[in-house]
Amino acid sequence: MTYYYLGDYNQIDNIELEDGVLKISFTHNNPQTFTLDYIKDIKIEDETGKVTLIHSVKDLLTKKEKETTLINNLKYIKDVTLDTGSWVTPEAATEENEKVW
Asked: What's the number of domains the chain is made of?
């Protein structure tokens, strides 16, 4: 957390939030701006369950959208088939399929 000394008689005049930028205006000083990092999109790969979070800020080195890939893939059933003999086979996104009675 960052703290700012406003002086004895300085007060917050206005607070604005636009496109992920927080701008705080004071009565006696220049405004301070802060870039907020929030998740603006989530990508999930169908075949692997890999989850990638797309941030609102850009990576400082690559100048591309900052992405975070989660360590654990999602485990979910993406399809179910009914075989002859009444075997139910779920098709998982990340694990071997297993027949269930």
From this structure: 1
Does residue 1 sit within a domain? Answer: yes
pLDDT tens figures, 35-88: 888 888 999 887 778 889 988 887 778 878 888 888 787 777 778 888 777 788
How would you class 19 by CB atoms within 10 Å of its CB: exposed for 0-12, middle for 13-18, buried for 19 or more?
exposed
Residue 23, domain member (yes or no): yes
Judged by DSSP in three states, 52 sits in strand
54 token code pair: 């797309």
Residue 54: inside a domain: no
Higher pLDDT: 75 or 4? It is 75
Q: Is residue 5 part of a domain?
A: yes
